[in-house]
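Supplementary Methods S3. Input chains for the assembly prediction are listed below.
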Amino acid sequence: MGRYLVRRVLQFIPVFIGATFLIFALVFMIPGDPIRALSGDKPLPQSVQDTLRQQYNLDEPLWKQYVLYLGGVAQGDFGEDFRGREVTEIMGDRLPVTAKLALYAFVFEMIIGVAAGIMAGLKKGGFMDNLVRISTLAVISIPIFVLGFIAQLVIGVRFGWLPVSGLREGFMSYIMPAMVLGSVSLAYIARLTRTSLAENMRSDYVRTATSKGLSRRRVVGVHALRNSLIPVITFLGVDLGALMGGAIITEAIFNIPGIGNAVYQATLRQEGTVVVGIVTFLVLVFMISNLLVDALYAVLDPRIRYE
Amino acid sequence: MSETRDRAKGPKTRQTELPGIPPHETEPAPRLPPLEIPAPGEYDDATQKEPVAGPPASLWSDAWADLRTNWIFLISAAIILLFTVMAIAPQLFTSANPRECFLSNSLVRPSAEHWFGFDLQGCDYYARTVYGARVSMSIGVTVTAFAALLAVIMGSLSGYYGGWVDAIIARLTDIWFAIPTILGGIVILSLLGTRGFFQVAFVLIILGWPTMLRLYRSSVISVKEQDYIEAARALGASDFRILSKHILPNAIAPVVIYAAITTGVIISAEAALSFLGVGLQLPAISWGLMISGAQVRILQAPHLLLFPGIFLSLAVFGFILMGDALRDALDPKSR
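Predicted structure tokens for the full assembly:
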């Protein structure tokens, strides 16, 4: 177990550097001069331009800019935008919103997804099974932005049950975006639970448990379900990446001032430092959560450890 | 077809039937994969336990027999066929020109003559929706084909040779893996000044290949341990021959399943990127762009959102359903 974790952490470092350098290099290869763009029609004096360039390390070669940047990140400094606002400050404003949205989406998809998966997996080929199978496929197929608009139009406008956009009504405002954001993962979780539960229900240890005379509730809930949820847990690591990608779209549709919206707006405005800062942070979150899931996986499934 | 099927009967008949063929082309495994219609070795144990009626069939012909009667497969094939025809020959579906617009028709609601109504510029919306299939289908197929090609080449090297080649490729895929697709797509595409078909396809290919590579790599690793690979090597077959003739047909099944699903996912991703304004640009006709344009008039003209949304979802549904049917047919473990 210890060796496995050490190996995973050691693999983590080059991948993190590679991924962030990739983003860094791409963003700062944008043709055009950000300092000149900053001043608009009236060019800044050469001396001011030089000072700014020096201040943002723009006079250094790309690799050195990156090393300096990474040094800053290690100390919690993600740089600042060209108006002097700290990227960490922007993230501080926006992150709680996205975290809340993702958390609600997560709770929603876990509860409904696992429940639907259990109902389908217990009787493979039955009515519930086919219903879950087809309806999850339909949910996966409808792109998240189409789903978002339909939800806005029907739930928000036609029936007026929930606020259409923005965050003015607190928790109520989060419900619809969270459901839209979690819908695709919900479908995947339901399908994963269904497949693995159906497989485990046929296994020897479940037959043993049943023939020992345990109640069905105990056989399913304690014996089969515990093992069936292992693949679901590993999915959650991947899911975080999907939630982040989905958050960009969901926040755009529902006009939610979260981190996805911030990175999207910054990309459109070509604010390189903000884009790189937030994306670096998101990649870090994504990788750490995958690392944690891997560790958890190794705890839950002993076969992984002795690989 | 019948000749190759006979060859699969077993070692006894094979020797007499194929006298002139150089030794390394006949494969020594008892359930050998015929060269064109192969059976993945990893499934052999599972399939052999089942009593087989009639001549022993390979996994692929088995799968085909299964699929022909599977209504899920037939529905998905019909949907994909419909959109393929729509992409190749949209004129078959509409006589209207999607670029011939009259402002006097702006935002006219659907009617008996014009089923889907008109958009802001007064273009016939049915015609535009039909012509939108071309971009989506060609992006989906192009991206999946190139990503699969890349995955098979790199996955072969990685899985077959192992060692440092594998280590380098694994780290490369890890790096791409760490960047979520939509996030990476937005960052890269927003840097490109003009974004047409090729730019969008390129970005989706480089973001999409790592998953397929991993699938193919692990599939290659399990196949290369099989006896028939050992035998082919002992008979002096070159690495290229082993990889292309023996490993590829037996290891490709997971990639085929995943490719069907990926095509749907890519179509959806292209629409999402175009919707966010970092994908295709006007005057291209794309479902993502149409939905993006409908966004601001969602209350006034919901039909502008509805029709491209339905077409888009249906196309994605077709491919994902196909993947589901293929998985049932190609993976005997799930039966």
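The CA atoms of residues 156 and 306 of chain A lie 52 Å apart. The mean pLDDT of chain A is 79.
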